[in-house]
Amino acid sequence: MNEKILRETPLVSIGLPVYNGEDFIEEALDSILAQTYVNFELIICDNASTDRTADICKEYVTKDTRVRYYRNPKNLGAPRNYNRSVKLSRGKYFKWAAADDVHAPDYLRRCVEILDNDPSVVLCHSKSSRIDENGLVIGTYEHKMRMDSPRVEERFGDLISIMNNPCWPIFGVMRKEILERTPLHGDYRGADGNLLAEISLYGRLYEIPEYLFLRRDHSKAYTKKFCSNQTSKAANKLDEQMAWWSSSSWINYTNLKNCYEFFKSVDRAPLKWSEKILCYREIVKWFFREGWKLFGNDIENYFLSRFSFGQSVVVAIKNLLRHMGIHIIEKGN
After folding, report:
1. Where are the alpha helices (DSSP H) in 51-189?
2. What pLDDT digit, counting tens, does each position of 277-319 carry?
3. Domains of the chain by range and CATH?
């Protein structure tokens, strides 16, 4: 390792928040430290893990001086732990990394090249593959979002689609000065999607047309536990999700909250009034396209999580709506 690079302030900061990540964190760390672009720091924020995560991370600190390890005395909840890694960072560019995902060796180099050469780009990511617990590629994530459109309302309008937004670009390399203009990662469900949409108000999101990011799909993943339509909706599911986020307000787990935050994002952004109006119009279009149906999903989850008779009430309401020709969007929480 080049000693001069290690003495300099790193250009890129990588924040890796983790809680009980012993199963896959070594593979995740190895892929980051094997990057062909080397001028970065890796900040691990351990959210009071109770497994072997701490021992594994401390071992990597001794192997590579770019690795910094911080352990929270208690679990702060995922959002606060994500945000802590931002506050501890020193680089011009920042990216989050999950403790179970893998990056191809050229991922960082390609992203930094784009950001260095195009000031209109505020975040750079690559196309994403899906891998299983053994690291085998089992699919890809495709989308039709116009994240790189020069028109702010097109970027924002596509990214606020809760049903169609895979959110993996939140793990892209972004300009830290732009990220710091936002509230960072919120403590409400779907906050990563809201953050991506807000970042798009500041510039283009560029996607490298190669599959350099490998997102791991496994049984313990948040998306598998809370976002899969195949997951049974147990009575305590909302309570479990609240514990993951460390937030006590039920409203934070509704699509109504996401909609409210869309408006706040536009209000905060340094846009012309004409651009703000166009973005507000996109939120209204989102509401009539899918938002009102998703609000029905909010009611369903409230009944399922709060009342023992919730399942029968939900079934009765759904049957009535179907009889009226109205179909509620099924969206796992």
Report:
1. 53-63, 78-87, 107-117, 152-159, 176-179
2. 999 999 999 998 887 777 766 666 665 555 544 455 445 544 5
3. 1-100 (3.90.550.10), 222-323 (no CATH)
